[in-house]
Amino acid sequence: MNYIQTPVSLLLDKSLSPTDRIVLQYLLWRQGNNQNCWPAIRTIAAEVGIGINTVRRSTDKLARTSRLTIHKPDSLGRGHKNNYIVQINVSKMDTITARNVSKTDTITARNVSKTDTISRNKCIQNGRTNVSKMDTELTPVTNTNNTLRPNSNEFRLAELLLNLILERKSDFRKPNLQMWAVHVERMIRLDKRTPERIEAVMRWCQQDSFWQNNILSTANLREKFDQLELKMAKGNQNGDRNSKVGTSGARPNPTARPGEFVR
Q1: Are 222 and 186 in contact (CB under 8 A)?
Q2: Cα(199)–Cα(5) distance, rounded to whole angstroms?
Q3: In angstroms, rounded to a whole number, what is the distance separating the alpha carbons of residues 47 and 83?
Q4: 112-134 per-position pLDDT tens digit
Q5: How far is CA 60 from CA 82, 91, 108, 125, in A?
Q6: In degrees rounded to 5, what are phi and psi of residue 148?
Q7: What SS3 class is residue 67?
Q8: Would you say the C-alpha torsion 211, 213, 219, 220 has a positive or negative sign?
Q9: pLDDT by residue (tens digit) across 217-232?
């Protein structure tokens, strides 16, 4: 990467407008160690991103204030381009500052590179323990294309919920299954839910008259998972109790024929 060293006297010259400083700095860069440069007005304007007339006004002002010497092409015979000579005396302070800045930039760049390498290595060694919770939330474990594969448990469960909803409402708007799969992935990885538990809760809530219309995405499912699982467990307990006692309060007779109860 190339850098342009700006003399402090130019940087702090309040009599110059920002445009004047840009033009003068550009000409300083173009002349390098030759003390001369011949860029066309159009070239200066195009490369620094200002208008042609603005460049002309700026170079005329710099020439009037003795910061720039302009030799017209007829005096040197150099085609149709002006010859520019920047008249700035670089002080000792400017030189020292430029050297210090260059040295500091180099040291800083090295330190940044070293820090980045160390941080990256620590993340790898610690199994991404330095990654924040937000980064973990937003970066699911995926394949190289950064998408969950259709044959993964996450994608399969996302499709299952969609199919269960479609059984009740065939024109249900098709969601982004990748995003649905991401929420399932977070349930598995962050909330420590097993795929079997997720599927069981998913099927139960889509059969429940109340919850089937309130759980219409995997994001809803994740948010209400604990509540749904408790409701499902309570329902199962009631179902087990009813199966033992019978809905009418009768109990099975072990010596009777199948389906016969005694009171």
Answers
A1: yes
A2: 65
A3: 18
A4: 455 555 555 555 555 544 444 44
A5: 12, 25, 39, 62
A6: -80, 135
A7: coil
A8: negative
A9: 999 999 999 999 999 9
Query: Residues 243, 235: contact at Cβ < 8 Å?
Result: no
Average pLDDT over residues 88-116: 51
Cα separation, 218 vs 147, in Å, equals: 17
For helices 153-168 and 177-189, angle between their N-to-C axes, nearest 10 degrees = 120
Can you state the percent helix, strand and coil of the chain, rounding each to 5?
60, 5, 35
Q: How far apart are CA 212 and CA 235, in angstroms?
A: 15
42 in Cβ contact with 80 (< 8 Å): no
In the block, residue with structure tokens 């016969």:
260
The stretches of 67-194 forming alpha helices (DSSP H) are 73-76, 92-125, 133-138, 153-168, 177-189
Give the whole-angstrom CA distance, residue 256 versus residue 1: 94
